[in-house]
Amino acid sequence: SIIRTVTAVQRADVLLVVIDAVEGVTEQDAKIAGIAHERGKGIIIVVNKWDAIEKTDKTIYEYTNKIKMTLSFIPYAEFIFISAATGQRINKLYEIIDMVRENQTLRIATGVLNEFMTAVALQQPPSDKGKRLKLYYITQVSVKPPTFVIFVNDKELMHFSYTRYLENRIRDAFGFRGTSHKFLVRERKGEEQ
After folding, report:
1. pTM for the whole structure
2. What are 162-186's pLDDT values in tens digits?
3. Which of the ends of the chain has fewer CB neighbours closer than 10 A, N or C?
Protein backbone atom coordinates (compact mmCIF):
# COMPACT_ATOMS: atom_id res chain seq x y z
CA SER A 1 0.00 0.00 0.00
CA ILE A 2 2.96 2.32 0.61
CA ILE A 3 4.15 1.88 -2.98
CA ARG A 4 0.62 2.62 -4.29
CA THR A 5 0.47 5.71 -2.05
CA VAL A 6 3.82 7.05 -3.26
CA THR A 7 2.80 6.44 -6.88
CA ALA A 8 -0.51 8.25 -6.35
CA VAL A 9 1.26 11.19 -4.67
CA GLN A 10 3.72 11.42 -7.59
CA ARG A 11 0.82 11.71 -10.08
CA ALA A 12 -1.17 14.26 -8.06
CA ASP A 13 -0.86 18.04 -8.00
CA VAL A 14 -3.03 18.41 -4.89
CA LEU A 15 -3.24 15.80 -2.17
CA LEU A 16 -6.22 15.39 0.15
CA VAL A 17 -5.12 13.96 3.49
CA VAL A 18 -8.38 12.57 4.87
CA ILE A 19 -8.47 12.40 8.65
CA ASP A 20 -11.16 10.68 10.65
CA ALA A 21 -12.51 13.34 13.05
CA VAL A 22 -13.16 10.76 15.76
CA GLU A 23 -9.79 9.01 15.45
CA GLY A 24 -7.59 12.07 14.80
CA VAL A 25 -4.28 12.10 12.92
CA THR A 26 -2.82 8.61 12.63
CA GLU A 27 0.80 7.69 12.00
CA GLN A 28 -0.19 6.69 8.44
CA ASP A 29 -1.85 10.10 7.87
CA ALA A 30 1.38 11.82 8.98
CA LYS A 31 3.49 9.62 6.69
CA ILE A 32 1.33 10.40 3.67
CA ALA A 33 1.41 14.12 4.47
CA GLY A 34 5.21 13.88 4.79
CA ILE A 35 5.55 12.20 1.39
CA ALA A 36 3.34 14.89 -0.19
CA HIS A 37 5.38 17.65 1.46
CA GLU A 38 8.70 16.16 0.29
CA ARG A 39 7.34 15.95 -3.27
CA GLY A 40 6.17 19.59 -3.20
CA LYS A 41 2.46 18.85 -3.58
CA GLY A 42 -0.47 21.04 -2.64
CA ILE A 43 -2.00 19.71 0.57
CA ILE A 44 -5.53 19.91 1.94
CA ILE A 45 -6.33 18.39 5.32
CA VAL A 46 -9.85 16.99 5.00
CA VAL A 47 -11.38 16.18 8.38
CA ASN A 48 -14.20 13.72 7.69
CA LYS A 49 -17.05 12.59 9.99
CA TRP A 50 -17.32 16.12 11.37
CA ASP A 51 -21.00 15.41 12.04
CA ALA A 52 -19.94 12.78 14.63
CA ILE A 53 -18.12 15.31 16.84
CA GLU A 54 -19.82 17.18 19.69
CA LYS A 55 -19.10 20.83 19.11
CA THR A 56 -18.82 24.13 20.95
CA ASP A 57 -17.99 27.49 19.41
CA LYS A 58 -14.27 26.66 19.82
CA THR A 59 -14.21 23.08 18.48
CA ILE A 60 -12.93 23.84 14.94
CA TYR A 61 -10.25 26.18 16.31
CA GLU A 62 -9.07 23.64 18.91
CA TYR A 63 -9.16 20.73 16.45
CA THR A 64 -7.27 22.72 13.80
CA ASN A 65 -4.57 23.70 16.30
CA LYS A 66 -4.20 20.09 17.45
CA ILE A 67 -3.70 18.91 13.85
CA LYS A 68 -1.30 21.80 13.12
CA MET A 69 0.83 20.76 16.09
CA THR A 70 0.90 17.12 14.96
CA LEU A 71 1.58 18.04 11.31
CA SER A 72 3.77 21.06 12.05
CA PHE A 73 5.95 20.37 8.99
CA ILE A 74 3.09 21.49 6.70
CA PRO A 75 1.95 24.83 8.18
CA TYR A 76 0.74 25.95 4.74
CA ALA A 77 -1.88 23.17 4.40
CA GLU A 78 -5.50 24.17 3.92
CA PHE A 79 -8.21 22.71 6.17
CA ILE A 80 -11.81 21.72 5.60
CA PHE A 81 -14.21 19.90 7.90
CA ILE A 82 -16.72 17.70 6.06
CA SER A 83 -19.13 14.84 6.44
CA ALA A 84 -19.17 12.39 3.54
CA ALA A 85 -22.31 10.79 5.02
CA THR A 86 -24.36 14.01 5.09
CA GLY A 87 -22.61 15.85 2.23
CA GLN A 88 -21.67 18.74 4.56
CA ARG A 89 -19.21 21.13 2.82
CA ILE A 90 -18.44 18.72 -0.05
CA ASN A 91 -19.05 21.49 -2.62
CA LYS A 92 -16.70 23.79 -0.69
CA LEU A 93 -14.01 21.09 -0.94
CA TYR A 94 -13.97 21.41 -4.75
CA GLU A 95 -13.48 25.19 -4.45
CA ILE A 96 -10.49 24.65 -2.14
CA ILE A 97 -8.98 22.05 -4.49
CA ASP A 98 -9.22 24.53 -7.39
CA MET A 99 -7.68 27.31 -5.27
CA VAL A 100 -4.72 25.15 -4.14
CA ARG A 101 -4.17 23.92 -7.70
CA GLU A 102 -4.06 27.55 -8.88
CA ASN A 103 -1.52 28.37 -6.16
CA GLN A 104 0.64 25.41 -7.26
CA THR A 105 1.00 27.08 -10.67
CA LEU A 106 1.10 30.73 -9.52
CA ARG A 107 3.98 32.73 -11.01
CA ILE A 108 5.27 36.00 -9.62
CA ALA A 109 7.16 38.30 -11.98
CA THR A 110 10.85 38.77 -11.18
CA GLY A 111 10.50 42.55 -10.92
CA VAL A 112 7.68 42.21 -8.40
CA LEU A 113 9.67 39.65 -6.39
CA ASN A 114 12.71 41.92 -6.26
CA GLU A 115 10.66 44.92 -5.14
CA PHE A 116 9.20 42.68 -2.47
CA MET A 117 12.67 41.46 -1.42
CA THR A 118 13.97 45.03 -1.13
CA ALA A 119 11.15 45.84 1.28
CA VAL A 120 11.58 42.59 3.23
CA ALA A 121 15.35 43.03 3.51
CA LEU A 122 14.69 46.11 5.66
CA GLN A 123 14.45 43.45 8.37
CA GLN A 124 18.22 43.07 8.65
CA PRO A 125 19.48 39.68 7.42
CA PRO A 126 21.60 37.74 9.92
CA SER A 127 25.36 38.14 10.25
CA ASP A 128 28.01 35.66 11.29
CA LYS A 129 31.46 36.56 12.61
CA GLY A 130 31.15 40.09 11.27
CA LYS A 131 29.98 39.03 7.79
CA ARG A 132 26.47 40.10 6.87
CA LEU A 133 24.22 38.28 4.43
CA LYS A 134 23.44 40.35 1.35
CA LEU A 135 20.39 39.50 -0.75
CA TYR A 136 21.01 40.48 -4.38
CA TYR A 137 18.24 39.01 -6.43
CA ILE A 138 15.27 36.61 -6.35
CA THR A 139 13.45 34.92 -9.20
CA GLN A 140 10.82 32.21 -9.52
CA VAL A 141 12.16 29.44 -11.73
CA SER A 142 9.31 26.93 -11.72
CA VAL A 143 5.91 25.87 -10.42
CA LYS A 144 4.50 22.67 -8.85
CA PRO A 145 5.90 23.55 -6.34
CA PRO A 146 6.65 27.24 -6.70
CA THR A 147 10.47 27.32 -6.70
CA PHE A 148 12.55 30.42 -6.04
CA VAL A 149 16.25 31.06 -6.54
CA ILE A 150 17.81 33.64 -4.25
CA PHE A 151 21.24 35.06 -5.10
CA VAL A 152 23.32 36.08 -2.09
CA ASN A 153 26.90 37.06 -1.28
CA ASP A 154 27.59 33.94 0.84
CA LYS A 155 25.14 31.05 0.99
CA GLU A 156 26.65 29.84 4.29
CA LEU A 157 25.12 32.97 5.85
CA MET A 158 21.62 32.07 4.61
CA HIS A 159 20.32 30.41 7.74
CA PHE A 160 17.25 28.13 7.63
CA SER A 161 15.36 30.52 9.91
CA TYR A 162 15.87 33.43 7.48
CA THR A 163 14.71 31.26 4.57
CA ARG A 164 11.58 30.45 6.62
CA TYR A 165 11.15 34.19 7.31
CA LEU A 166 11.29 34.94 3.56
CA GLU A 167 8.86 32.10 2.82
CA ASN A 168 6.38 33.47 5.36
CA ARG A 169 6.67 36.99 3.94
CA ILE A 170 6.11 35.64 0.39
CA ARG A 171 2.98 33.86 1.65
CA ASP A 172 1.78 37.05 3.34
CA ALA A 173 2.32 39.07 0.16
CA PHE A 174 1.24 36.66 -2.59
CA GLY A 175 -0.84 33.88 -1.03
CA PHE A 176 0.29 30.44 -2.16
CA ARG A 177 -2.29 28.90 0.19
CA GLY A 178 -2.08 25.14 0.45
CA THR A 179 1.23 24.76 -1.39
CA SER A 180 4.82 24.30 -0.33
CA HIS A 181 7.70 26.41 -1.59
CA LYS A 182 11.16 25.40 -2.60
CA PHE A 183 14.11 27.78 -2.17
CA LEU A 184 17.48 27.42 -3.86
CA VAL A 185 20.25 29.67 -2.58
CA ARG A 186 23.06 30.58 -4.99
CA GLU A 187 26.14 32.75 -4.56
CA ARG A 188 26.53 35.54 -7.07
CA LYS A 189 30.09 35.42 -8.37
CA GLY A 190 32.25 38.47 -8.85
CA GLU A 191 30.64 40.48 -6.04
CA GLU A 192 32.38 41.88 -3.01
CA GLN A 193 31.76 39.69 -0.02
Report:
1. 0.86
2. 888 899 899 989 989 999 999 999 9
3. N
